[in-house]
Amino acid sequence: MTRIGLALFLLLATAGAGPAPAPSLPVPPIPPEHPPMDQSAPIPNPDARAPADTSSGGMQVSVTDFRLNHQDQSLGYARGQQFQDSEDRRVIQTPGLTVRVPLQ
């Protein structure tokens, strides 16, 4: 008898822990009986053009430093302090050239 009672209790407990009933949906808006006839529906502009391409077609060379921009790693430190790796401790960063060649 104890096993049947325990099984019945477990069955009712698992059935009671099921998902809650879905909330009822709100009533959708009712359209007006007489819609306005003096306005047209919005449509996309057929004469719209894409922005002009401002990038140059040739190779670009610029002087840059090679400091990597890391995510903010100061989450575990006190206010005003942050983690510094060996690259951040350098007074002068390693200079270099960045060359960009467009592929067409």
Give your account of this protein's structure.
With 104 residues, the protein is α+β, with helices and mostly antiparallel strands. 18% of the residues lie in helices and 12% in strands. The protein has two helices and two strands; from the N terminus they run H-E-H-E. It has helices at 2-16, 86-89, and strands at 60-65, 95-100. Strands 1-2 form a two-stranded antiparallel ribbon. The N and C termini lie far apart (82 Å).
Which structural class fits the helix and strand makeup? alpha+beta
| Rg, nearest Å | 33 Å
Q: Provide the helix percentage.
A: 10-25%
Low-confidence stretches: none
**What is the CA–CA distance across the termini?**
82 Å
Shape: flat
- What does the average pLDDT come to? 77
Number of DSSP helical runs = 2
Oligomer: single chain
In total, how many beta strands? 2
Strand content: 5-15%
Largest sheet data = 2 strands, antiparallel
Summary keywords:
alpha+beta; 12% strand; two-stranded antiparallel ribbon; single chain
Summarize it.
This protein has helices at about 1-15, 85-90; strands at about 60-65, 95-100. The chain has about 100 residues and is α+β, with helices and mostly antiparallel strands. It has a two-stranded antiparallel ribbon.
Blueprint (SSEs and pairs):
Elements: H1 2-16, E1 60-65, H2 86-89, E2 95-100
Antiparallel strand pairs: 1-2
